[in-house]
Amino acid sequence: MTETALLEFRSVNTHYGAVHILKDVDLAIYPGEMVCLLGGNASGKSTTLKTLLGMVTPTSGEVLLDGEVVNEKPTSYRVTNGVTMVPENRRLFKRLTVKENLELGAYLRDDREGIEEDLENIYELFPRVKERLSQKAGTLSGGEQQMVAIGRALMSRPRVLLMDEPSMGLAPALVQQNFELIQQIHEEGMAIFMVEQNANMALSIADRGWVLQTGRVVLDDTAEALLANPELRSSYLGES
Amino acid sequence: MMNAPPIQKKLFDQNWKRILFWGSICALTQVFICLVGLPSELNRRILIESTLSLGYLFILWIPLVFGYVVSKMVKLEGIENPKQGAADLLSGALTGLLGSLGLVLLMLGIDNLDMRDPLINWNPKLFRLLTFENSIGFGSLVWIAVGVGLGTVGASLHQMSSQIRKMTAYAIFGLFSFAVLEDVIDDLSEGFRLEWLSDMIYAKKGGMTVTSMIVLAVVLALLPLIVRGKFKNTVERYRSEAKPEDKRRNSIALFSIVAVLVLVLPWFLGGIINELLANVGLFLLLALGLNIVVGLAGLLDLGYVAFFAVGGYTTAVFTSPNSPWFSPETHFGISLLVVVVMATLAGLLIGAPVIRMRGDYLAIVTLGFGEIIRLLFLSDWLKPYLGGSQGITNIPAIDLGPWEVRGADPRSVFYMVLAFCVLAIYVSWRLQASRLGRSWMAIREDESVAEVMGINTVNSKLMAFVVGAVLASFSGAVLAAKVGSVFPKSFEILVSIIILVVVIVGGMGSITGVMVGSLVLIGILGGPRQPGLLQEFQNFKLLIYGALLVFMMLKRPEGLVPTARRTRELHQEEYLQDAWLGDDESEDREEVGEQL
Predict the structure, then answer these.
(1) A46, A99, A141: best mutation site toward chain B, by most B Cβ within 10 Å?
(2) Which residues pair with A27 in a beta bridge?
């Protein structure tokens, strides 16, 4: 592909103190595609996200945003330039109202009209959120919280949405609903980078995927190929 | 027991374990209060002429409260409650009796054993107080009668109709306030030239006269009958029906009335009360600052007194001719500018190293910093510059052209402090709704996610520290000019703790709450070194502060005047969690149904 990647890792290494977390990781997310990162516990998935967002600085290698090296740029720079994360377990500001939560998503923007417009879009996408605007986020049901979390992320007008374990802590029926929602947002042109343990579900909607094992990318392929991969099937999809 | 109709509980069908438990606690509390010395110390303060002193009151409330507690219905779903009746009165009486037995044992103990060495209040004075200067037998009989009586009364509170309960409550609390606020009422009536009124209520030697007490009690008890929720109804009707523009106009009118009152009232008050109000203002200023740091940004700063000290010392150095090293003797206004700069620097200096810590660690490190600053002021090293333990004296009054603000004229100090408080309230109010305020709240809720939103958490937290520091330093500056001197010992750790208690008791994050908190705590109980309305409590201030803090944390964690948000959150949490589950479940079921 000759297109510039939206976000890219070039042999990124990170350390927490002396502990080597990511080892020569290469990733690339292109505009408008849906990709997923799979891996078990302690494989470095969260660190990958933190490094993409600039909350962890790599010890070597390059993080690129639109082809520009952003290793040293703060999180706010990346958020302004279209990278946003929906945190694991939704992590809303529980004691603030739904409206305040959404507005905090647009913290770095100062175009009032644009913010109003985006709020309207979100109400359209999630009518239920509109009914709960003045309610505290902590009092919503799990499904509603997920909507607010996604809405909050959308408020920064991202081009790529990083999603940390979107299905975690949701009832099985909601997981399905949630993936449909992600797909819907994706169809409107948003690039999505999903970190998941629920490999089956994630791969069924993603274009491509990587498998991370103890900080190293061990598989990098299209979603279909990954789904068919016998090794992956045995270790992640619970089939023998 | 199956679905039996509510039955009258038999007289001796008691939960003996419960009575024994609460009775023993009642006894222990009474003995504890006696040994702490509250009754002996407060016996001098007479509430009702030749009948009741504050000292005795401190023993008497105990059986009343425990009688109330022990007979409280335990409501459990699906279990029928036996009808209230004589059985509950008996349980209250027994609890009171057990409590009195504690006092009897204490009297016997004081008479026969000498324990004055560890317990200084184990003395004849307490003995005389408990036996009413009579024999042990007489004292015991009186206390048992009183304990049983009050325990029964406490228990009977559950059985009164709500109307009577309301009347009793009005009478008791009204009388209590009248008796305790004697000084203020005296002072006020003097200011308004209504001496005859206070002369009528209070006896010459202090305390209310018996007749006035009875008259007042009747009047107060009739009050709820006359009012009968009319006031509440009017307010509610107003809230729901009035037009927004009317509301706006009315609230502006109300605000102006309050403002005029606050401005005019000091002229009708005597020196002592004005002094008190000035102290309340100084601590309100501190509390408003801390409210930004703790209430909004969620940074538990236990070394807040450091900024108070910086304000005081900067003012001292710049205005006092006695400053040992550098003494430009500038005007207060100029020194105030320096104070702002110094406080900002101090905020950044203390903030920068600790800002990356979270929660408990932050609290411990700021605690340390607070002490370090005080010890620096006290040290021999800085003695040539800041006077060491002798401090800096001779700080001049604030010269404001036609007016002068000096400690000897507490009214002027009050107006000065008022100006700063108004500024602080305005700043806090505007900040709450601002982008910065929003970022503080986000950080308080979840720092990592706040970072994900693109908030520069380090800058934001430093700003909270700086704003808090500047407000505290203003308070310190006025304090220095008011007292005329600064000493390291005025800036003890206790100041930080008391301000924190004010913020917590008032309601974290709520400006009104902080105002009420400082008025109640500093005004009535007094600040760390400043006497409050109840000067008798001076020695027991910390005990009461502590007890109040524990009580508030258990029973009303959102504070006296919480923000609407906090109330919802703290009192709805339990059922909301269930509601949440229920909601999810029903949702799932629906969807599962659809899929099937």
Answers:
(1) A141
(2) A9
Q: What is the pLDDT of residue A158?
A: 93
B451–A55: do the CB atoms touch at under 8 Å?
Answer: yes
Q: Locate A97 and state its tokens.
A: 């109202």
H helix or E strand, kind and range, residue B488: none
Q: Do B454 and A173 touch (CB under 8 A)?
A: no
What pLDDT does B577 receive? 40
Token pair belonging to B29: 């509390």
Same structural domain, B125 and B197: no
Q: Long-range contact list for A115-120, CB < 8 A, 24+ apart?
A: A115/A155, A118/A154, A118/A155, A118/A157, A119/A155
Whether residues B95 and B175 share a domain: the answer is no
**Total number of domains in chain A:** 2
DSSP B131-174: TTTS-HHHHHHHHHHHHHHHHHHHHHTTTS-HHHHHHHHHHHHH
- Is-contact B508 B295, C-beta < 8 A? yes
Residue A168 pLDDT exceeds 70: yes
Site of tokens 């620096």: B376
Return the number of other C-beta atoms located less than 10 Å from residue B229's C-beta.
10
| Calpha distance B363→B375 (Å, rounded) | 19
- By the 8 A CB rule, do B179 and B220 touch? no
To the nearest whole angstrom, how far is the Cα of B585 from the nearest Cα of chain A? 9
Matching residue, tokens 């700043």: B427
Q: Which residues pair with B4 in a beta bridge?
A: none
Query: Checking DSSP bridges between strand A208-213 and strand A216-222, what pairing results, if any?
Result: antiparallel
Same-domain status, A202 and A142? no
Q: Are residues B208 and B134 in the same domain?
A: no
Q: Are residues A22 and A109 in the same domain?
A: no
Give the predicted TM-score (pTM) of the model. Answer: 0.84
Residues B377/B309, Cβ–Cβ less than 8 Å: yes
Name the token pair of B460: 């934001």
- CB B462, CB B348: distance < 8 Å: yes
Residue among B128, B586, B438 nearest A108 (CA): B438
> Which pair of tokens denotes residue B26?
């009642």
Rounded Cα distance, B470 and B337, in Å:
11
Cα B323 to Cα A156: distance, rounded to the nearest angstrom = 55
Cβ–Cβ contact B244 with A under 8 A: no
Confirm whether B548 is domain-assigned: no
| Domain enclosing residue A119, as ranges | 90-157
Helices (H), A72-138: 75-80, 98-105, 112-125, 127-131
Instruction: Report yes or no: B213 and B206 within 8 Å, Cβ to Cβ.
Output: no
- Within 13 Å, how many C-alpha atoms sit on residue A41's CB side? 0
Structural domain boundaries, residue B112: 9-159
B439 touches chain A (CB under 8 A): yes
- Inter-chain touch B580–A76, beta carbons under 8 Å: no
Quick one: what percent of chain B has pLDDT higher than 70? Answer: 90
Helix, strand, coil in percent for chain A, rounding step 5: 40, 25, 35
For A73-109, what is each residue's pLDDT tens digit?
999 999 999 999 999 888 899 888 999 999 999 999 8
Within this chain, do residues B341 and B438 fall inside the same structural domain, yes or no? yes
